[in-house]
Amino acid sequence: MNPIGDNEKLRARIILVACGIIWRGRELLIAQRKPDSRLEPLKWEFPGGKIEFSENPASALKREIKEELNFEIEAGDIFCVSSHNYQPTPKKVSHVLMLAYSCAYRKGTPEARDVHDFRWVTVEKLDEYDFAAADHVIVNKLRNIYARPDLHPGGPEVPLERVLSDRDCPVGELKREVNRFVAERDWEQFHSPKNLSMSIAIEAAELMEHFQWLTVSEARFLTRTPEKYDQVIQEIADIAIYLLSFCHTMNVDLSAAISRKLKLNREKYPLEKFWGKHTT
């Protein structure tokens, strides 16, 4: 009940909503409301929607994400609850009670089906977006727990002449960067195919160690712990460095090898037989 004017009371209509804090690595997904949205058009939010009568909140969230952005998530625990009154007219109040779930990206490529736009952003970048009022509680809690201004989005800051990125770094250039590092230390003499293949396997085992006793769901949410996620990133980097060094030593064109293998795999695993299945 909300007081207005000379002690008159407003009865608020309660709207139960589920939204997703969807992690993909250290980035999370935010969506922009459409221009014709009834409340706060073009504001940014954590995607989700109303929970229908008798609907499980986590199931409702998965449905909403599929309808709005056309990809699949895994819903974890409730991260926080937001409670906010919207008053579009002097005598009408809508009370939004929002369950914010920690979620992990699972499958598919997001697309703006029933949102105006979407972005993958780090917690440190959330302040750059104008969020809907009900989402402020979530933004503040995320910032308090996960903001790491000392970390580069792809891992700890490192003193390179230029920070490389998947968006603009061809595989050949990445190979040259690794080869330069090796040559500067006169390590080519140790980089036999035997040593490098064994090093790839050893580093892969160290990566597996981080997930050894986790369930599938726990493994998806490991990125919520920055320190553990950084360790995983470093193991992946070690594997990739040894793999690129192996390709250099054995004169393997990695991009061509992957293209050829994908072609063979498409023939070996045709869609009509293997859609959604990993066994015959």
Question: Explain this structure to me?
Answer:
The protein is an alpha+beta fold and about 280 residues long. The protein folds into two domains: about 1-150, Nucleoside Triphosphate Pyrophosphohydrolase, CATH 3.90.79; about 150-270, Helix Hairpins (Orthogonal Bundle). About 35% of the residues lie in helices and about 25% in strands. The chain is built from eight helices and eleven strands. The strands form three sheets. Strands 3, 4, 5, 6, 7, 8 and 9 form a seven-stranded mixed β-sheet that branches. A two-stranded antiparallel ribbon has the order 1-2. The protein has a two-stranded antiparallel ribbon with strand order 10-11. α3 crosses α6 (about 225-250) and α4 packs antiparallel against α6 (about 225-250). The chain is elongated and about 80 Å long. The N and C termini lie far apart (about 60 Å). Mean pLDDT is about 85; it is low at about 1-10 and about 150-160.
